[in-house]
């Protein structure tokens, strides 16, 4: 095993696997309410195909798999997938990013199948605001899902929040208070240019500096050392042990330490969230003319070539930056 090392010496150990582009919410910054540009059903990888790619990735040094989407819990075989990943000879850590809606039903079975933890996305504590932001009146289901995940032992329970100007930017402090009271590990994420509508405006984005300054009026925040390749910069809140994370993808990119690769639900490897090129693995997975051994060796070569083509940074702050053709929901956040 040589590992997936790029031209800048970054070793790739984390694979984000999107298992569907479908979602049961319509978060305004991700997917327009009338979105209908779904991936064709026959392009979606089957559970066996997903497992083949994951096995090759693990054989090549990947130690963490995060299932995402779309909404990963809409995939009927998601519990089986977690179980099969955990049954690998050297199982990677398996986590999941979810909107939480189906956790009430699935938290227990997922934990029993070997899921280590879950990140739940929640942008507001206000029920009406939630319905406006997501076009679905499902706030109570998210809260129930978070509670179910905590009962199932999926800890630390991380909650991801995107703040938007004039929409929920007054919730930074209440969100953190609520998180401290309910044992959530809260992380604020800067809004990125990845919406299907192409409406992102830099001037409208709430930057990490703004979030930090707001939080600092109510809490003492001390940086936690040893961030490694983690996207979030963590701060001890009021002396700890609780922390709050801030993910500054736009204003303070962390590409130099990036160890992440992505697999889209239709079988394309992406070496960056903002990449404009993808490496197709679906054709190799479905090529009936080759042996299993050849298939795996070709897949390993495709991973290696994607990693070698990775740019030093995502380029969002470059004047020539062009938003990827796929929205976040089809890439896998
Ligand atoms: N459905 C799952 C969920 O809600 O977490 C997983 C997929 S979702 C695309 C993953 C994460 O991406 C969520 O935390 C969401 O808030 C975030 N996200 C989506 N679009 C974004 C954007 N334009 N900027 C920043 N974060 C975004």
Structural notes for this entry:
The chain is of the alpha/beta class and 333 residues long. It contains ten helices and twelve strands. The protein has helices at residues 47-59, 78-86, 103-113, 127-134, 139-151, 172-182, 208-216, 282-285, 292-308, 328-331, and strands at residues 14-18, 64-68, 93-98, 117-121, 157-162, 184-189, 221-223, 233-237, 243-247, 260-263, 268-270, 279-280. α1 (47-59) links the parallel β1 and β2 (64-68). The longest helix is centred in the last third of the chain and has 17 residues, at 292-308. It starts with 13 loop residues before the first strand and ends with a helix. The mean pLDDT is 94. Bound molecules: S-adenosylmethionine.
Keywords:
single chain, 333 residues, alpha/beta, 12-stranded mixed β-sheet, 10 helices, binds S-adenosylmethionine
Describe the protein's topology:
Layout: E1 14-18, H1 47-59, E2 64-68, H2 78-86, E3 93-98, H3 103-113, E4 117-121, H4 127-134, H5 139-151, E5 157-162, H6 172-182, E6 184-189, H7 208-216, E7 221-223, E8 233-237, E9 243-247, E10 260-263, E11 268-270, E12 279-280, H8 282-285, H9 292-308, H10 328-331
Parallel strand pairs: 1-2, 1-10, 2-3, 3-4, 4-5, 5-6, 6-9
Antiparallel strand pairs: 7-8, 8-9, 10-11, 11-12
The site of S-adenosylmethionine has 20 residues, from β3, β5 and α10.
